[in-house]
Amino acid sequence: MTGSGVTPTVAFEAALSGDRTSLARVLSMVERGGADARELSRLVHARTGRATTVGITGAPGAGKSTLTSALIRTFRAGGESVAVLAIDPSSPFTGGAILGDRVRMGEHALDHGVYIRSMATRGHLGGLAVAVPDAVRVLDAVGFARIVIETVGVGQVEVEVAGEADTTVVVVNPGWGDAVQANKAGLMEIADVFVVNKADRPGASATVDDLDRMLMLRAIDGWCPPVVATVATSGDGVGALADAIDRHHRHLVDSGALATRRAARVDAGLRRTVTALLASRVDALATGDEWMRLCAAIEVGRLDPWTAAAQLAED
Amino acid sequence: MTGSGVTPTVAFEAALSGDRTSLARVLSMVERGGADARELSRLVHARTGRATTVGITGAPGAGKSTLTSALIRTFRAGGESVAVLAIDPSSPFTGGAILGDRVRMGEHALDHGVYIRSMATRGHLGGLAVAVPDAVRVLDAVGFARIVIETVGVGQVEVEVAGEADTTVVVVNPGWGDAVQANKAGLMEIADVFVVNKADRPGASATVDDLDRMLMLRAIDGWCPPVVATVATSGDGVGALADAIDRHHRHLVDSGALATRRAARVDAGLRRTVTALLASRVDALATGDEWMRLCAAIEVGRLDPWTAAAQLAED
């Protein structure tokens, strides 16, 4: 039961019938975690597995939001429903910028076949690792054909979140700085498709060529990540990007890699879920006199954290 | 007992007496986690609390390694021993770049009062959250007066790791791009000292002024983060940076904030340790027929992860 008095079951049934307010409520329950999120996971599970998922990642400023918006247009032109999960660092200082991104997607606001939702990363890394896959499964269950997971930065969170997508698109800009950053952050290895966005800027074709050469060295399971040049603001190349995404998806199906990926995701997901379940028990432990007593003992050097943890976990 | 046949106790005793090979071995045990790391945590704990810790973070390419190297020089000139913990994304593709950074610090290679160590983030976020504080405590225990924690990117890991430092330095370059990225990544709020590095480039003083104006709005506990202009390659401004760090530390001590921060760190550390302890139990669960059976049931939609997790955790 949530504060609004609506149970997960009621909210999910309404979301299934197309009610967007209920869908938003369901995703908020998922984001908050806890008993409601667990209940939803149970309700949602059997209905999942139909959507194709695309992760879009790359350095801030690479044009990911604009590209996502253009990609929505392409998918919609093909008659497919699209949900976007935008993973944001929710700093109070950035409200404006992020809001700006969402507003830029405003062209889709009146289209019932499009749903855009931000999820905050701030302060609960572990929470996000569970919440994002759960949110993806909700969007899958309520019937979106395409789910786009857009991340803001190039950090470890992005690499983890990318693991939830069937196809991961890494976006860079002309020039080498971005590619080097992507490389440093480990994005090179997770890219199934590479995009050189803002390709109307100088150096675009050289960047495409350089990336092509680098990527040729790392064909995995018979797939060499293609490099697509786009100008997201005009829509140039976005059709070719959608084609590359679909080509990758067919490759996953034909090679059997999709089944392998999804099995690996189930394994990783179960690990995370067990960890989250155990972590919720930690929260229950982290209160009261016993906890205060142990913290005080650690602070003065009388006790080390592992011994204290073992004492708590034994209780 | 490790593969080399050296126990944590023996390695730590040797590290305490100044043996660098043993210190490296101890830190590897901490990085690997498990029983040796726990044993070390116990050995180390009572000896900690003397070092002052500085976190250095900011976008890739901002010049953090060069700045760290210059800062080492300044601390060493004051007769203080310095340990650097460089948190790297350890992609096989980036070995060169990271190695390059370390080699740049080669000027300190023959100085016994300086110790530089890389730690990898790849693949174990949760592991790092425990390993970094443990490594800091080892370096504190073996007697380094200054511990510098340098991170590579501007992601959530950086924000988490910064929480381990008494003073967090955020490095940007002239121009607004970096500051906006730092802002997006939530680094603005964790900065105790701001550095505009490469200040010999155009726009440096405008960037300093802009940051000063922004930061004036957010004096916390009576501390308004100063903005220091540096040219790490020449050493210009690095003395002023060291002064700002020390001024911040004195402020922490005088205002009582240091005690509050350290108490909060103990609380957060105990939570993480309990979580890690429980997670190690997950690893023990994640094998065998029962695990395979549950994964298979999830994959075909017969079981949801939370129910499966609850079944495992009950056993």
Write the layout of secondary structure elements.
The structure is a homodimer of 315-residue chains.
Chain A: H1 8-16, H2 20-32, H3 34-45, E1 52-58, H4 64-77, E2 82-88, H5 95-104, E3 114-120, H6 125-141, E4 146-151, H7 156-162, E5 167-172, H8 176-184, H9 187-190, E6 193-196, H10 204-216, E7 227-229, H11 238-255, H12 257-285, H13 288-299, H14 305-314
Helix pairs in contact in A: 1-2, 2-3, 2-6, 3-6, 4-11, 6-12
In short:
2 copies of one chain form a homodimer. Chain A is α/β, with parallel strands linked by helices.
Q: Could you explain how this protein is built, in words?
A:
- Two copies of one chain form a homodimer.
- With 315 residues, chain A is an alpha/beta fold.
- Chain A has three domains: 1-46, no CATH class; 47-255, 3-Layer(aba) Sandwich (Rossmann fold); 268-314, no CATH class.
- Chain A contains 14 helices and seven strands.
- In chain A, strands 3-2-4-1-5-6-7 form a seven-stranded parallel sheet, with helices on both faces.
- In chain A, strand 2 (82-88), helix 5 and strand 3 form a beta-alpha-beta unit.
- In chain A, 50% of the residues are buried.
- Residues 90-101 of chain A have low confidence and may be disordered.
- The interface between A and B is large, with 74 and 73 residues.
Query: Whole-number radius of gyration of chain A?
Result: 21 Å
Uncertain spans of chain A, ≥5 residues at pLDDT below 50? 90-101
Q: In total, how many beta strands of chain A?
A: 7
Structural class by helix and strand composition of chain A = alpha/beta
CATH topology of the largest domain in chain A: Rossmann fold
Major beta sheet summary of chain A: 7 strands, parallel
User: Can you tell me the CATH architecture of the largest domain in chain A?
Assistant: 3-Layer(aba) Sandwich
How helical, in percent, are the residues of chain A?
A: 55-70%
Oligomer: homodimer
Q: Please, how many domains of chain A? A: 3
The rough form of chain A would be described as: globular
Strand order of the largest sheet of chain A: 3-2-4-1-5-6-7
Tally the helices of chain A.
14
Overall mean pLDDT of chain A stands at 83
**What's the end-to-end separation of chain A, in Å?**
29 Å
Identify the CATH class of the largest domain in chain A: Alpha Beta
Order of helices and strands of chain A: HHHEHEHEHEHEHHEHEHHHH
